[in-house]
Amino acid sequence: MKSSNKNDNDYIPLKDIFLFFIRNKINIFLFTFIGVLISATIPIKSSWMGKSTLRFKRSIDKVIISGNKSQNFIKFTNNPYTNDENAYKIFKENSFLQEIYKYSISKEEDQKNLGFKKWKDKLIIQHDKNNGKLIFTYKAKNKDSIYQVLNKINQNYSNKAHIFKKNSLDKNLIDYKSLIKKYKVKNDNSIKNIYYFINSNKIKDIDIVSLYYYLNTNNGTFIDNKQRQLKINKIDKFKNNSPAKLVMYINLLESASHNSSILNRLIREKTLIEIEKNLKKEPWISKSKISIDKVNSNSKFKLISLGFILGLISGIFYSIFIDSKKNIIYSKYGFDENKYFSIISEIKIRNNKISKQDFKILKKVYLDNQDNNYLFIVPKIISEKNILIFKKEIEKNINKNNFKISNEVLDHINYSNTFILVNAGFTKRDEFNYLCDLLHYAKSNIIGIIILSN
Prior knowledge:
Strand order of the largest sheet: 9-8-13-12-10-11
Order of helices and strands: HHEEEHHHEEHHHHEEHHEEHEHEEHE
Low-confidence stretches: 5-9, 218-233
Helix content: 40-55%
Number of domains: 3
Distance between the termini: 27 Å
């Protein structure tokens, strides 16, 4: 009975792979040749690569609103019009790229069936953060379409950037309108409080109209003696000079002046944002000329290489298919897959001559007793030529009356030593397995399998 040894069958030796290619060299060569021939006849159009660059203001400049630094605004506001980071976001949006894609396929006949995802692979957008640059690279077979597509990108962005800027600044204007409304209420309440204080304390000689004008034009800070004296002169008009009322009046006046100052700033800054919003200009500092160069690629070589590889792979798979259809065992590992009997010898036959060394080992171990008789059972299909070579070698060492080569299973009854004799490259797998099953069921005393290999 055969002992299990999985490790011997877990790999295919290089020799068998080499013999596979030798055995199927014609099929593999033909498929490879056809693959190269087809790929060589496919025409290749020239490819072109276009490049353009947009340079934006740096981060330190992007906070300028109508010539004023927005970090000094009550509500900090970025100007997205000159922001390379926001520009990069716009360029990467699918909605923006879809418009360019539709324009592109309308200009390039060979792009009609090209999907959006594959088209995006042709357009490379790089963001140079250190220098505030956006670099566009576009590849196509039509030289003119490259210029048109890159120019369309610049044109569309210029329009969209202005809309983007307006929408962005509109959000800030909403906040400013809300703040202005809030401080108008505060300012009006401050004036009412002063008016109520004056009337309730029966203060005379205070010009309320002048005071209102003063509060709405003064910036709310009294930084020199003249301004402070003006305020004190007005306060001195109290008939009953009460220190507590004096302090209260000063607080009311300062609160009203502060609210009025903030309101005036809010109105001014809102006006500056509105001016910036409606100011349409190029969103970049500079735009490079579109440069277009012919792509120096080894496309033809790549195509032929691809044809070679595909042809080779096709030839290999076809050869595997043919081998499986023939159902022939070419390697000793194919014989070792049976469940019952082990391989005891592999005898090589080269140039119609048997390997003396291989046969000597077989004879020494299994055929050395001249008194025994030996039976070699073979499947139905086996090389007659190799059988004759093996038979002649046996006759040199054993009396011809003491051995027999047969394909009859029941012959093993009359022989004390029985071997299975197979020929790699000729024996079919199903016939070999069927023979092994019959010998197993017949309870024959099989010593092992002898393989003849060319």
